[in-house]
Design a protein that fits this description.
Elements (H helix, E strand, L loop, with lengths): L2 H17 L3 E7 L10 E7 L2 H19 L5 E3 L6 E5 L3 E7 H7 L1 H4 L4 E3 L1 H5 L1 H10 L3 H82 L1
Parallel strand pairs: 2-5
Antiparallel strand pairs: 1-2, 1-6, 3-4, 4-5
Helix pairs in contact: 1-2
C-alpha cells in the first residue's frame, strides 16, 4: 500500500479516538528494523470499559465507511482492558489505565519516534526547519575560531624572525670581537720578533767592540 494512503488511514484513526475523548493519545512511528511487523502504533486509554469499547467501535466504523478498510484482527473487545485492532500497516491499542501502565508500550518501544498529526501528514515540512536551522551558525563560529588562531601565529612568526635577527647581529659582534682579539696578539708577537732580531743584530757588534779593545791593550 502507498505510504500516503497509510498515513491517511492512521490520521483517520487518530481523529476517531480523539472524537471519543480518548486519554493520553500517543502516535509512534516504529524504527526501520520493525517495518516488517508494522509501521505505526496508535496508543490511547479509556477511563472505563464502555469508553474503551466505544473508542474501538469508532475507529472500526470510520475506517470501514470512509476508506473501506477492515482490521486484520480484533482482540480483547469483551474484557475491554486492552483492545487491539490490527490493520497490518498500523495497529491501534486501546487500554484501560491499569493495563496501559502495566504493559507500557512507549517504554517497550522507546526507539520509536513520537509523531504529531502534522508530522504524520507532512513529514518533510516538519523536518525541513530542524535541518536548515543548525547549518549557518556553525560556519560563522568556525570562521571566528580560524581568524582567532591565525593572528597569534602571525605574531609568533614575527617574534621568531625578530629573535633570529637579534641572534644574527649578536653573532656578528662576537665574530668581530674574536677577529680583533686574534689580530691583536698577532701584532704583539710580530713586534716582539722584530725587537728580538734587533737585539740579535746588536749583540754581535758589542762582541766585536770588546774584541777590538782587548787587542789594543795587548
Amino acid at each position: 500500500m502507498p505510504t500516503q494512503d497509510i498515513r491517511e488511514q492512521v490520521a483517520l484513526a487518530l481523529s476517531a479516538v480523539n472524537n471519543k475523548k480518548a486519554e493520553d493519545v500517543s502516535l509512534l512511528q516504529l524504527p526501520g528494523e520493525s517495518s516488517t511487523f508494522t509501521d505505526y502504533f496508535l496508543i490511547c486509554s479509556g477511563s472505563n470499559p464502555r469508553q474503551v469499547q466505544a473508542i474501538a467501535d469508532e475507529v472500526d466504523e470510520r475506517l470501514s465507511k470512509d476508506m473501506g478498510v477492515e482490521p486484520n484482527a480484533r482482540e480483547g473487545y469483551n474484557t475491554a482492558e486492552w483492545i487491539l485492532l490490527d490493520y497490518v500497516d498500523f495497529v491501534v491499542h486501546i487500554f484501560n489505565a491499569q493495563r496501559r501502565a502495566y504493559y507500557d508500550l512507549e517504554r517497550l518501544w522507546k526507539s520509536a519516534h513520537k509523531l504529531t498529526a502534522e508530522e504524520l501528514m507532512h513529514p518533510t515540512k516538519a523536518a525541513a526547519p530542524a535541518e536548515a536551522a543548525p547549518t549557518l551558525p556553525p560556519v560563522k563560529k568556525r570562521a571566528k575560531k580560524v581568524a582567532a588562531k591565525k593572528s597569534p601565529s602571525v605574531r609568533a612568526a614575527a617574534k621568531q624572525s625578530a629573535r633570529g635577527a637579534k641572534t644574527k647581529t649578536v653573532g656578528k659582534k662576537v665574530m668581530v670581537k674574536k677577529a680583533a682579539t686574534k689580530k691583536a696578539p698577532a701584532k704583539k708577537v710580530a713586534a716582539k720578533k722584530a725587537a728580538a732580531k734587533k737585539v740579535a743584530v746588536r749583540k754581535p757588534s758589542v762582541k766585536k767592540a770588546t774584541a777590538k779593545k782587548s787587542s789594543k791593550r795587548k
